[in-house]
Amino acid sequence: MSPLLEVTDLRVAFGRSHREVVHGISFALEPGERLGLIGESGSGKTVTALAVMGLLAENAYVSGSVRVGGRELVGLRDRDLAPLRGQAMSMVFQEPMTALDPTMPVGRQVAEVLLLHQHLGHGVARGRVIEVLAEVGLEDPERVADAYPHALSGGQRQRVVVAMALINRPDLVICDEPTTALDVTVQAKVLNLLDAELDAVGASCLFISHDLAVVSQLCERVLVMLDGDIVEQGSLAQIFNSATHPYTRGLVATARLDAVEPGERLPTVEDYYQRQVRR
Amino acid sequence: MRRAGLWIGVVLVAAVILAALVSLVWTPYNPLQVQPTQTLRPAGWPHLLGTDGFGIDILSRLLVGARTTVYVGVAAVSLAALGGVPLGVLAGMRGGWVSEIVLRVSDILYAFPALLLAILLAAAVGASTGTAMVAIGIASIPAFARVARAATLIVMTQDYILAARASGTSRWTTSVRHVLPNIAAVLGVQASVSFGIAILAEAALSYLGLATPPPTPTWGRMLHDAQTYIFTSPVQALWPGLAIALSVLGLNLLGDGLRDHLDPRLREAA
Lengths: 279, 270
Ligand SMILES: Nc1ncnc2c1ncn2[C@@H]1O[C@H](COP(=O)(O)OP(=O)(O)O)[C@@H](O)[C@H]1O
Ligand SMILES: [Mg+2]
Description:
The complex is a heterodimer.
Chain A: E1 5-14, E2 19-29, E3 34-38, H1 45-53, E4 60-68, E5 71-72, H2 78-81, E6 89-92, H3 106-117, H4 122-135, H5 141-146, H6 154-166, E7 172-176, H7 184-201, E8 204-209, H8 212-218, E9 221-226, E10 229-235, H9 236-242, H10 246-255
Parallel strand pairs in A: 3-8, 3-9, 6-7, 7-8
Antiparallel strand pairs in A: 1-2, 1-4, 4-5, 9-10
Helix pairs in contact in A: 3-4, 3-6, 6-7
Chain B: H1 2-25, H2 58-94, H3 96-110, H4 114-125, H5 129-156, H6 159-166, H7 171-207, H8 219-226, H9 235-260, H10 264-267
The structure holds adenosine-5'-diphosphate and magnesium ion.
């Protein structure tokens, strides 16, 4: 089986000074697989996700290769990429507060994703939107569809965002810290929802998080990213039991807080990995 | 206190628009009718604000003058918005050299004051209400371009823009469906400020004879005519001066009041 997503020697640099923030990373994602991408803030996770979607700012320089379903995306023009976005691949963003347009009822925003890729009458589209909003566990979907984002809670908004990402049944869904901004109970619900919906749609997922505990609920395999490099990759079992990189061992220790004896100091990543001071 | 400012602004601007509308169907006297026996009457009855040096009823002339003011303001602001907003949004969305070019072009336009444009236009095609509209409109394009660009830059950092693009929305559709509605409030503030500037500019141009030619009443022209009597009947200059000052004040209060109601993130763009 050929991989659904194949990233080879991807490099991303920004601005006139060409400051490189992703240093030639490679990984692959099989159809139906869920791959975690984990790393601290600023390690280049979002940049990697946006590079796959072809959505980096104009001041970004991208080299290397990104193939989705065998098709090379690096270097494609925006108008050739746009039909793939929301259809073959889609994205769930971190901030449910800002991921929905405040000037538009959320139902119209979900319908927009549908209508961009399929020729449907507005009545049919609305029916489908209501259906999907119900599917992602929103009560009273008719009312939610007509509501503006500010009238919804964080959890409700994130469900709408998930509905937007999944309505066209894409092959690949990139989730960029989809639960980081939510409180813990809502976080668990949204994770369960994602789990179920990804299965229902049969989509592969690149799941980004800084939290190994969250990743381990959803993914079978994990990439560990540090300062723009992938320093370790493997199955969850490998990562938890036989990590080689000190940074990964630090992540594992902080994800296993239940193993800490009462009264003992909680471990931090820094106990395991000290970043060299750059000159 | 700030709320009061907004409401005073609304009332003053509404009064100007109402005056312009009323003048379309009714004025106390014919604003063009010269009455040599009735010159320089003081305020009272039957001429509420008195008469001018030609014996024309001042209130009637003010009401009709409001019409020219509103016409020129609306046309100039529309022209400026139509020219400036697409440029600013484009610059804000694309960045890089597109943004550089837009900023340079708006710098060049900015260096051309409305007055100079009006003189050039009046020399080329003759002074008229239309030349004032075009001159003031073009001179106001840079302000709209800059504000639209600044607001677009802020809106572009929001995830909903990225989310729209990640759903397959093209740049063009994103700008119309998601950027414009989110910067509309900021553009409203700018429209209000630009309208105030346009009123001042229109008054200056008609005072100088570079806009609406006589006998059509304009506030600037009334100021010009009042000059003759500045020592004998200074109240002649008071009425058009007050009309100009109050409407500019109204638009500025309105603009400030609207700015206070903006999303705090967007406030710095306005
Ligand atoms: N548009 C941009 N211009 C310049 N630098 C950027 C841009 N976007 C991200 N970066 C830089 O790239 C690095 C990685 O950022 P990011 O991928 O957002 O990290 P994270 O892993 O937290 O998602 C950071 O140092 C960030 O400052
Ligand atoms: Mg990030």
